[in-house]
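Justification of resources, computational component.

The compute hours requested in this renewal are based largely on the per-chain cost of generating structure records like the one below. Each record pairs the submitted sequence with a full structure-token output. That output is archived, and it is also reused by downstream analysis tasks.
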Amino acid sequence: MKLSFGILLCFLFLGVASGGLFSFIKEAGQGTRDMWRAYSDMKEANWIGADKYFHARGNYDAAQRGPGGAWAAKVISDAREGLQRLTGRGAEDWRQDQFANEWGRSGKDPNHFRPSGLPSKY
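The structure output for this chain reads:
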């Protein structure tokens, strides 16, 4: 727990050092909203096979905000996946979700994971 808290503080410091505290906090808030929108869209779409697409899209949109958004996406994704692992989801599903999360955060096109037939609204 202490190690993860230390890593969290390092990410926070690095993000704040690159553009100012106000900018970082604003980006983090916007990134959090992007992650929530992707989650809400995933629930609304209720589309089999679209999970990885929404993971990648939420992380991509958040990371495009800047260091604060990328930080928020990482924290939210890691927390979500950590909780899901505790509830018994398989390790392979966790690895695939994390791959999609990192794909999106790195700026790669989330449409790589888009399932055929998913409405264009998403």
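The first helix runs from residue 2 to 17. Helices lie at 2-17, 21-45, 51-63, 67-86, 91-105.
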